[in-house]
Amino acid sequence: ICILLLLLGTAMPPCVSAQIDAPLYPSKDNFFILLSAGGYLPIRDSYRINYETHTLGLPLEIGGGLMFPASERLTAGLQLRYKRREASFVPDMFISTFELEPSIHYYLDNPKPDELRIVGLLGILLARSTVTGIIESTHNGSDIKSAQVSKAYYNIGFGIGLGLEYPVTTLSAIFADVHFGTYFADSISRGGLGNVGGITVSIGYKLGL
Fold first, then answer.
1. Least packed by Cβ within 10 Å: which of 20, 99, 138, 181?
2. Is the full-model pTM beyond 0.85?
3. pLDDT digits 0-9 by tens, 61-96
4. CA distances from 36 to 25, 147, 203, 205 (A)
5. 185, 177 contact by CB (below 8 A)
């Protein structure tokens, strides 16, 4: 019995040590899948007053993306966001925008179990906005027909953000952030949509693989 207890006693420390030495953050071999949803507030007054967000029947901007950890503090990301804005002054007219953001995320503190982490974001914004509406046309002056038409606009800008993240497990977390985006390459004076950027307050979940 003494020999058995001695063997069990010597076998315990490696198990305890393995738990203590478990990593508190993912390795470079992991990547994350992100899903998020949030409220959107445009920068331009005319865009804010004359349009309302209406994505999948809800006043939300939805998003998803991938994140690739480079170290315990630095992560590279690629996020895609989508929103649909309906005109309040013209029926059956809306603007749908896909926004792609390659970004860098930097955690302001070292990882600790069961503690909130503050993360900053800096990225480049690439947007494709499509304006869709109904027009009435005629070929002979009497037969009027309705048709749906659309036109695409492209823009580039930059985004910054600040968020909070709470780890659920080593490879998953919930987060909330505030993101500000602005655009400068599709001015109204040149027939474009102007600055379609704004502020998004969102919540989401990320899962590591």
1. 20
2. no
3. 999 999 999 988 999 999 999 999 999 888 889 999
4. 21, 35, 6, 7
5. no
